[in-house]
Amino acid sequence: MLPRPRKRFGQHFLTDRHYLGRIVAAIGPKREDAVVEIGPGTGLLTDELVAALDHLHVVEIDRDLAASLRNRYEPSRVTVHEGDALEFDFASLPAPLRVVGNLPYNVSTPILFRMAALAARLADCTFLLQKEVVDRMAAAPATGDYGRLSVMLQYRFTVESLLRVPPGAFTPPPKVESAVVRMVPLAPSRPIARDESRFAAVVAAAFSQRRKTLRNAVRALVDDAAFSRAGIDPGRRGETLSVKEFIALSDAAT
């Protein structure tokens, strides 16, 4: 019998064995991999991962579920970390780390930004998320879904949408479609902004009011001379710039 999902934790348990199998196949775990699962919940995906791995770490915020997981698995096979994934020290785990999980929709974006900050220590991330979020993560420039999340994640990762998961695969069913996404850190040779704080600020400003031209949206951060140095028309809008162009604009403004 499944525990009652807690609304405050945004819990929707993936219970469809078909989709569980497809997700594990997409992850492709090897026995020696260092893997951490965020939000294992009822342990259905955890069961599949434990069977494929020598050891698994899990991070579970729900005290009752964490206790159940400790009773269910031998400590030699599964280490249960009770706590909030937004506060957990992922750097304390072995690297390169593979991160997986059915992320609560209400905190998915902050967790994704945490992963971005840890990209240098990661092998990859495979997450089940609201499809709308996955569409934004993987969006190309000059499309309706392209925005701050797209740029900030694609600055550090290749992002690939793998498969859709219907509401009926969950208990209780969410009101939205879901999708599985894979993020793989880019090579150290990737383009890197000289000042990553300024880069993040320029990106945020560019998308703060999408109808504004870049000149007006980032006026407080980028002057006309910087646009000229970057070779970017200030009459364009933020959603038309590639990640490399945002890096160039940020660098020109420093």
Structure description:
The structure is a single chain. The protein folds into two domains: 7-185, Rossmann fold (3-Layer(aba) Sandwich); 196-253, Helicase, Ruva Protein, domain 3, CATH 1.10.8.100. The chain is 35% helix and 20% strand. It has helices at residues 17-27, 44-52, 63-72, 108-117, 131-138, 148-154, 196-206, 214-217, 224-230, 243-253, and strands at residues 13-14, 34-38, 56-60, 78-82, 97-102, 122-130, 157-165, 170-171, 178-185. Residues 5-10 have low confidence and may be disordered.
Using the 3D structure, state the CATH architecture of the largest domain.
3-Layer(aba) Sandwich
Give the % helix. Answer: 25-40%
Largest sheet: 7 strands, mixed
Count of discrete domains: 2
The CATH superfamily of the largest domain is identified as Vaccinia Virus protein VP39
Examine the coordinates and then state which fold CATH places here, giving the name of the CATH topology of the largest domain.
Rossmann fold
> Strand order of the main beta sheet, please?
4-3-2-5-6-9-7
Low-confidence stretches: 5-10
Residue-averaged pLDDT? 94
Q: In angstroms, what is the radius of gyration?
A: 20 Å
